[in-house]
Amino acid sequence: MPKIIAAQAPVLGGAGQHNFWVLLGDNGQVLSQLHGFQAGPNGEPSTTGVGGTLRVYNNYGMEFNSSTSQQVVFEGEAEAVAARWNAALDCKTLINEKITVITR
Predict the structure, then answer these.
(1) Cβ atoms 37, 55 nearer than 8 A
(2) At 27, is the secondary structure helix, strand, or coil?
(3) Is the predicted pLDDT of residue 73 greater than 80, yes or no?
(4) Torsions phi, psi of 76, nearest 5?
(5) How far is CA 43 from CA 15, 69, 84, in A?
(6) Among 9, 21, 94, 104, which is 20 to 30 Å from 35 by CA?
(7) Are 17 and 10 a contacting pair, CB within 8 Å?
(8) For residues 33 and 4, what is the distance between their CA atoms, to the nearest angstrom?
(9) Nearest CA to 56 among 32, 26, 30, 31?
């Protein structure tokens, strides 16, 4: 059964954690991911967390496997899971339309 997972992966050599969402298919395969990162001047994600514009990225290549800390937040029939994931994608669009400049 497809599901949506809240995942947490270590970053910066374990000094921090990055939280993200993962859409898994019937067989546990990763179908999609949603991540929040600061964007650099070129619009690409910046993993340093030093200044920039907060953006949501779909399918940014973060490692996800069975050893990644995770919790199922929704599981159900494909249509129900897809409806919730698509709602998250709609939120991504709304968030990215808002320009939040983070300065330090």
Answers:
(1) yes
(2) coil
(3) yes
(4) 180, -165
(5) 25, 28, 27
(6) 104
(7) yes
(8) 9
(9) 32
Per DSSP, the three-state class of 92 is helix
Whole-structure pTM value:
0.80
Residue type, 57: Y
Query: How far is residue 69 from each of residues 28, 41, 76, 98, measured CA to CA in Å?
Result: 15, 31, 21, 30
What sign does the CA torsion over 70, 71, 76, 80 have?
negative
Judge whether residue 59 has pLDDT over 60. Answer: yes
Alpha-carbon distance of 21 to 78, in angstroms, equals 17
State which H helix or E strand residue 24 sits in. Answer: strand 16-24
Tokens of 86: 């698509």
Q: Bridge partners of 37?
A: 55
Instruction: Dig out the tokens for 87 from the structure.
Output: 């709602």
Return the closest-CA partner of residue 64 out of 99, 103, 15, 21.
21
